[in-house]
Design brief:
mainly alpha, single chain, 5 helices
Length: 92
């Protein structure tokens, strides 16, 4: 599995889903949650979009940390999405 530090280094340029255009998405843009999903796709653990909904992100977080409860996964997924929309990438 990959650490948060490694994930940030490997996917250094997240964008907000609010400002991303179709062209950006076609060029491979991703949000913070999308970076996790991209990494899980590479290791064969999960398939989701580069701008996942809170349900997909919750599930990805639980795959990344099986000790995470569904409630905690939902909380962190929503928090990540809210911070991402605000462009607060460092807080995620």
């Amino acid at each position: 599995m990959i650490s948060v530090k490694e994930l940030k280094e490997k996917y250094p340029n997240p964008v907000t889903s609010i400002t991303a255009t179709i062209t950006d998405i076609r060029k491979g843009s991703y949000c913070v949650g999308g970076a996790l999903c991209l990494e899980l796709n590479k290791i064969g653990g999960y398939t989701a979009t580069t701008f996942p909904s809170s349900v997909y992100l919750r599930d990805a977080l639980i795959i990344a940390n099986p000790n995470l409860s569904i409630d905690d996964g939902e909380y962190y997924a929503d928090l990540i999405i809210d911070l991402n929309h605000a462009g607060e990438f460092k807080d995620e």
